[in-house]
Amino acid sequence: MKVLLTGATGYIGKRILPILVDKGYDVICCVRDKNKFHPENAIKNQIEIIEIDLTQKETLHHIPKDIDFAYYLVHSMSASKNYSELERQSAINFREILNTSDVKQVVYLSGIVNARSLSKHLNSRKNVEHELGKGKFALTTVRAGIIIGSGSASFEIIRDLVEKLPIMIAPKWLKTKCQPIGISDVVKILTGVLNNEKVFNHSYDIGGNEILTYKEMLLAFASVRRMKRYIWTVPVMTPKLSSYWLYFITSTSYKLAVSLVDSMKTEVIARDNELMKLLNLQPLPYKDCIRQAFKKIAQNEIVSSWKDSTISGRLDFKISNYIKVPEFGCYKDIRTRKTSDIDKCLDKIWRIGGNTGWYYANWLWELRGFIDKLTGGVGLRRGRTNINSIKAGYTLDFWRVLYADKSEKRLLLLAEMKLPGEAWLEFKIQDNILTQTATFRPLGLWGRLYWFLVFPFHGFIFKGMLKKITE
Q: What CATH architecture is 2-308?
């Protein structure tokens, strides 16, 4: 039987893909950019990959007609100011193309929408469900609130707040109640409802067995990590101030922070746990979800991370548009140095960024990241998902990986910091010579002035970094 998996490169999609393959399904993975999709070698030959964009009808004809089931795991939160309309139109386009197929069931992961007053984000999710419900197929909607797991946005934000702030003067929405659920339970539920006729044309709320305020979640996280934390809530923080507070302290982007703050004012509590009973599942307690997440982190087994999505950086980003570094109208800083040990040199390049740092003058990189945060950029806090692995589409501090091939001895990065232009950083080894190239394509006069202002620092930073990598 064939399963269409939209959002295959997303946080949830990456988690359920290997399970679907293991269950014997023929999975067709829908992605916007094949360059960002890196399935494990064990399943690479067992899946089909197609490029589609749900906002562009003409691309949807790539979807086969003989599919049996489909997952709808995409959303446009924070992608643009009119993301609600984008989500609605994407759902309509998806529904219309699937109405011409053999699909029996569509599984949609939504948000809990029981409150009288919904945030823009949650209202948008509700509208998507409404549009999908008009299809000729059976719709199964699974509504979740806060999802806790290694690499999830919620987990990373809670972690940032707890680990960085011993004392918090926090917004009043920390008193809002929610019902967190572990990623392992979400995955079991999403795969458990597939091809299960008992859940056809039904919607379900899912959550753990604990109803907690955000403040209680932070303190419970601190307890698991054996940290003493003090939190006071104040009523004076406006939504805008709350968004800035979340943005500066955590690794989230500003646009995502705005959407999160808007949603955090709304209680997300499940109506019941009927689906858990139907699937015979016992949800993992919140503290156990935290422990499980850190176990994955300690073992360097983070399957997926929200930071690798385009929401965390450029808003409409296709790798193929940037992989060819331009020559005309660009400034370049090219440096070369011989290396006596290619393998060690490559290992250093492949571990660059994140906790490893940039090998030389890390305080200047951190300063640049701080300045980027002040100007509304991503800063350095995204780090990297895996300490050893780099793949196209992954984040690397304030860079996005465009190309990474160890056999070719080449790594190409694109800057996602706030710049008056576009910047690339490339490492390439040929004939025992490492060539390190920084390319900048300025935008207008200010872009040209910017290059000459930072050029003296390049001479200091890039020279030192090249020396350290080749030592």
A: 3-Layer(aba) Sandwich (3.40)
